[in-house]
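During the reporting period, our protein records have gained a structure token line. A sample record is set out beneath this paragraph:
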Amino acid sequence: MPRHVVSQRVYLSVLIALMALLAVTVCASFVDFDRFAGRGVSAAIALSIAIAKGLLIVLFFMHVKYGSRLIWVFAAAGFVWLSILLSLTLTDYLTRNHPADANFRGEPRFLLSQER
């Protein structure tokens, strides 16, 4: 089976892109986007950057981009399984009965007041 040889230029380009995305992640962590655009925007931005970094790693460093269709199927199956696990976790979390005096992060106030 012939192997695909990836040039060092591609690896260097991906490394530069990953470092740029790392810098964007660090910069985005210091800005409170939720205050400007609404609740959950900061998490959506962080997840978008993480997905972009993950795709670069999977496609180039794991050589999925140059793999056969069977490799693509197994890579996609991993992401399908991850989405199943995340959806089951979110359905458990979102259907919990939080106390009426819980703050926006989900910790009840009476637990926070006992810690101090």
Summary: The chain has two domains: 1-67, 68-116. DSSP finds five helices and no strands in the chain. Helices lie at 8-29, 33-37, 41-61, 69-94, 109-115.
